[in-house]
Amino acid sequence: MSITLEKPKIKKLKSFWSNRQKMYVDDHPINIDEFCDLVGEDDDVELINGVIIQRMATQFPHEDLFRFLFSILVFYAEKYNIGKILGSRTLVPINQINGRLPDILFVSKERENVIGQKRLMDAPDLIIEIISPWDRPSEVMQRIGNYQIIGVKELWIIDQPKNKMQVLIFDESTKTYSPLEIKDSIFHSRILLGFWFKIDWLWQKPLPSVLEVFKEIAGDL
To answer: Which of 53, 82, 128, 210 has the most CB atoms around its CB within 10 Å?
Structure first.
């Protein structure tokens, strides 16, 4: 989908390119409310330290893995009526001048009231980020730090280039993340109760059938 930011409201902003990304700035740090007013649902942009930053277009491996995971998770959440799985156009505010668009997120049924018209009003229960070859380690760590600040309970970092998955669990007592040990390459979520999958499914080429994987995880549809 193309990026269409040149709207009357945003034309007043200065734009420039940095590290192959287009950025939009005002004469003051843009806040979350202004950001929501300036951009539309088709705009693939984030708010970083008061600056609107256009995200790089994803490539097929990223989109294919997104499709695979998103489909399975939506099926699972609907089958067991446990909450909402949302995609990469859902704004997650970090603070007044920072807002992220995770690849996939989950909000539990008892907390669905945090889903607003243009953004979440509180942290989601689960976030999934798919790392692509052009994502710098510093940017990945910034995302992890952002999600730790707002207390996202479970964070999946799926590193496609390295065929590696890391799961971080938020510790309420220390307000920090700790890695979850994954035994025998089978992951069991602490947030999506009963949900599990084989890590190796993520690296298969082509990816397995969504329906066949879902049947194995949760039984027949």
So the answer is: 128
Beta strands 154-159 and 164-171 are antiparallel
DSSP per residue, 74-114:
HHHHHHHT-EEEE-TT--EEEETTEEE--SEEEEEGGGGGG
- Phi and psi at 82, nearest 5°, equal -105, -10
Residue 31 phi, psi (nearest 5): -100, 175
* Pairing of the two strands 126-131 and 154-159: parallel
H or E stretch including 137? helix 137-150
pTM (2 decimals)?
0.91
Q: pLDDT tens-digit profile of 150-189?
A: 999 999 999 999 999 999 999 999 999 999 999 999 999 9
What domains can you pick out in the chain, each with its CATH number? Answer: 14-54 (no CATH), 60-218 (3.90.1570.10)
